[in-house]
Design brief:
Elements lengths: L2 H38 L5 H33 L16 E3 L3 E5 L2 E6 L2 E7 L3 H6 L7 E4 L2 E8 L1
Parallel strand pairs: 2-4
Antiparallel strand pairs: 1-2, 1-6, 3-4, 5-6
Length: 153
């Protein structure tokens, strides 16, 4: 597979991974809300009141995380892959180093594309700040590790 086709596959895999994260948050929120509704039917136990309050707090936290995940998905949905390789590290580039493949876009744990591990980086990530605007053949250091950029596309 050529580099542009691989990059298109990376973007699609990132979207699938992000949608999975969104679905997980929605499921967890729904599960917590379902527990509360069942408990409300016969509510007299003070321990249950405390548990419901804890569930409400957790739903609020998860709702904020869900909103953030949806905002990152919006970014991924707006991204596109140009038909030419890029010459420096920017959002949307695939960056190959000797040990890792990075995809500056949104923060995603390792995901696999065509048998290769890819790591999504947000533009706020300190690692991205170290590699931003670098070109093929250049190096950058993060947390005492030095990375050599072998390819950007």
């Amino acid at each position: 597979m050529d580099k542009i086709a691989f990059k298109k596959a990376v973007l699609e895999a990132a979207r699938v991974k992000q949608q999975s994260i969104i679905n997980d948050f929605k499921t967890r929120i729904d599960d917590l809300n379902d527990v509360e509704h069942v408990a409300d039917e016969d509510q007299h136990d003070l321990d249950q009141v405390a548990a419901n309050q804890s569930n409400k707090e957790m739903v609020a936290i998860l709702s904020k995380e869900l909103q953030f995940a949806q905002e990152e998905m919006d970014l991924l949905q707006r991204m596109f892959v140009p038909d030419h390789a890029l010459d420096q590290v920017v959002i949307g580039a695939v960056v190959e180093t000797e040990n890792h493949i990075f995809y500056p876009s949104v923060s995603l744990e390792r995901f696999e594309v065509e048998g290769k591990n890819v790591f999504g980086l947000s533009k706020q990530a300190p690692l991205y700040a170290q590699m931003q605007n670098k070109q093929e053949g250049e190096s950058f250091t993060y947390n005492d590790a030095t990375y050599h950029i072998q390819a950007i596309y």
